[in-house]
């Protein structure tokens, strides 16, 4: 969710965050989050970026063709590795699934619906993992993949403020969303966030974006409240 | 020095050493890094047909996924990436993710799910290389796995019919090919003058689409419109695999070659004609014998006399 908020903040578009239990069903693609603008509903980062671009706001206009290709490739890397690893950790690691994910996913519903729905979701995620070949991976291998991905992102970022030097792009929003979530969400073990913390330029990157786009806007309190209440802040 | 290494993979055809994208990737990497691999194509054996190809066997170690195989080769000091900077290494990972997310579904679809392609090309090709009765079961199994993978990763709302999913994956694949073409530009390889892991992966995914003749060829047509990608594939296949490039030159190159051929033929005809005229000239007693060895197109005395002979 944060990557979308970050993206919209970077485009200087005001956004109001609302939590709803039936959000998955309202979304046109069944995936969260989605934005509701006037009488249009758009979900998923790709379509949202295009929608915003059609309205005249774009973060990647300053990039040349090769840079745009690179940006798309890195976005796929994040989706391929980080997102899949997050899903794996939430649903395929038995301890985490039992103690954290099932209660959280089923919380809006009464018993036994909460158990049924969360087991159904777990079954779906496991099927997908099997199809892409992640079912045979152990937790150590998944963590190693996350480490490799973070290393690649860290090397690409280097000492620049954003991935494509001076201006933030969709890639920055996406990376921020994932890394911030990993760093601040409480899980059984801290191994995942430790992997990210190994790369100081990535944590500095997250802190910088949080400061600039979330904590700097006092009036947009809904965004900061949502960010703060669900997760701890990176700044202490 | 290193233990002998054997690679087991599917066989090839249509000018490719192997039809399986991951096998092709590993074979290309081995060529780039100079790793001495013995390649054994699985044709008539029951072993390893349960599907995991490519498989690298070195002494007692058996490794089965391309990323792991490449890691193993690097540890054995066969490294094609040692000249890459850290950022280029990161780019490699990103582009491989792009290939797997955007190009692989369309590749799987073209080979295994598209009915006409599957029935007329893929199934007969695989079935002819597997012993009965596995030939009845295995192609179907791979088809189901491919379909599953496509539906689970790309299907789902807002795409409600399979036709919409197909349209989306081909759109994504074409976009991916365009991005690769832009990234490659006019260089010989993706990172300068020497081929690396990324070149191996791109070849593995691209060459089967480019070379295999399917009845339904929309992706192949798209590849042919990107001449730098075609040149990239052909280059590697001829230089590193020593295979002759048969047939699939990009459209523009074809007409240029044909024109060049016609021009050469015309020039040869002209030179033959002039030689004949000169022969006649030599037989006549007017001038001392002169040997015309090269075609002289510049205006000169030699040209005028044969023409004078012919004129009434």
UniProtKB/TrEMBL annotation, chain A:
Keywords: Acetylation, Membrane, Mitochondrion, Mitochondrion outer membrane, Protein transport, Transport. InterPro entries: Glutathione-S-Trfase_C_sf, Glutathione_S-Trfase, Metaxin_GST, Mito_Protein_Transport_Metaxin, Sam37/metaxin_N. It comes from the Eukaryota. Residues 147-209 form the Metaxin glutathione S-transferase domain. It is found in: Mitochondrion outer membrane. The keyword Transport applies. SUPFAM superfamilies: GST C-terminal domain-like. The keyword Mitochondrion applies. One of its GO terms (biological process) is mitochondrion organization. Residues 4-121 form the Mitochondrial outer membrane transport complex Sam37/metaxin N-terminal domain. This is Metaxin-2.
From TrEMBL, chain B:
Its main location: mitochondrion. It is found in: Mitochondrion outer membrane. Residues 173-236 form the Metaxin glutathione S-transferase domain. Keywords: Membrane, Mitochondrion, Mitochondrion outer membrane, Protein transport, Transport. It comes from the Eukaryota. GO terms for biological process: mitochondrion organization; protein transport. GO terms for cellular component: SAM complex. InterPro entries: Glutathione-S-Trfase_C_sf (IPR036282), Glutathione_S-Trfase (IPR040079), Metaxin1/3 (IPR017410), Metaxin_GST (IPR033468), Mito_Protein_Transport_Metaxin (IPR050931), Sam37/metaxin_N (IPR019564). Residues 23-142 form the Mitochondrial outer membrane transport complex Sam37/metaxin N-terminal domain. Belongs to the metaxin family. This is MTX3 protein. It comes from Anhinga rufa.
